[in-house]
Amino acid sequence: MITSVGEVLIDMIAAEEGDLKDVGRFEKYPGGAPANVAVGVSRLGVEASLISKVGDDPFGRFLIERLKEEGVSINGIAIDTEKHTGVVFVQLKGAKPSFILYDGVAYFNLKREDIDLKILDESRIVHFGSVLLARSPSRETMLWVMGELRDRAVISFDVNIRRDLWRNREEEMFKTIEKAIKLTDILKVSDEELKLLEGEGIKAEGRLLTAITLGKKGCILRTQEHEVEIPGYPVKPIDTTGAGDAFTSALLVGIIAFREYFTESTLMKIGRFANLVAGLSTTKRGAWSVPRKEELMKYSEARDIVNRL
Ligand code: ATP
């Protein structure tokens, strides 16, 4: 099983172009990077589970229902009786995506006692994003879980720098992200983030594997012994929201398929699969746009992985 730990939230996506100040209509979608990864993993045919926290409110019930429909185990989702489910207002259209994210919501209130260690013990890979690191007590909880998991599961971490969450706290952001990277086996980072981290003198490497995403150009997969660059899968994208999360879900499924055995050849196969899944995800709208295993069997890049699961 692959377990994600982190936010599941409501994406209120602007239904018209323009500044959020002027937008009058929004559409409700399920989202949150770690939740997106769990849904992707489940669609690709590997058991998936999510550890998170939602409010005792209609949005929380909606998210739980949607996750269940996607086959993601929700046993690790705690219900917060004080805080509401997280909501983000997003403008994706136009040159610069912008968002408003609220503090004081359930996922930032994730505490040690909310974590079911049994679920983690049953997981081969546990995946984390970086949003929980931006606030307390979720930050302490996440770093504690990562520490507990060391040598018990493969730890995956998507750096996903969101400066808006760390306004006036840049130094703290880099320090906290560095702490998480040091606990990471599989690191996913974009080429831009890698440059930023290196500029700060931070060694951005996972102990087992580092995946560097290059947008439409594909990705680089790097281990201590090997490095391969795999060109992107050519598509006509209509919505790249969640491409990074689609990539991560396929990357983790590929790693499971080869049981963390990395040679140039297995890395090429994993990278081709991740680029295919992420590329195809950009041809559909929304963050939950990973194609299902059955739809992928016509691609040799997918058969290489799926037939080994
Ligand atoms: P995000 O922007 O979703 O937070 P990220 O920065 O990791 O994540 P990208 O590097 O833009 O995302 O994309 C992740 C992967 O998605 C790429 O490695 C590639 O496989 C695929 N991808 C993204 N954009 C395109 C595109 N235009 N054409 C084909 N594949 C793409």
From TrEMBL:
Superkingdom assignment: Archaea
Keyword Chaperone appears in the UniProt entry: no
This enzyme's EC code(s): 2.7.1.4
GO-annotated biological processes: fructose metabolic process
CDD domains on file: bac_FRK
Keyword entries, A-Z: ATP-binding, Kinase, Nucleotide-binding, Transferase
Carbohydrate kinase PfkB domain sequence ranges: 2-288
Entry keyword annotation includes Nucleotide-binding: yes
Residues spanning the membrane: none
A GO molecular-function annotation: ATP binding
Matches recorded under Pfam families: PfkB
Family under the similarity heading: Belongs to the carbohydrate kinase PfkB family.
Protein name: Fructokinase
Taxonomic classification: Archaea, Methanobacteriati, Methanobacteriota, Thermococci, Thermococcales
